[in-house]
Amino acid sequence: MTQQPLQKALHNFFAAEHIESYAPVPAEYCVFNADKLRRARVDFVPASAVVFVLPYFVRRGENLSAYATSKDYHLFAAQLAPRLTACLQQVCPEGHFRVFCDNSPLDERRAAVAAGLGVLGDNGLLITHRWGSFVFIGEILSDREPTAFGPICPPQKTDCLHCGACRRACPTGCLSDHSRPCLSALTQQKAPYTPEEAAIVKTAGSVWGCDACQLACPLNRPQGGLPVSPIPFFSEERIERLDRATLDAWDDAAFATGAFSWRGRAVPQRNIDLLYPPSGMASVPNDLQPIRRTHTYTEKKED
Question: What's the whole-model pTM score?
Answer without folding.
Answer: 0.88
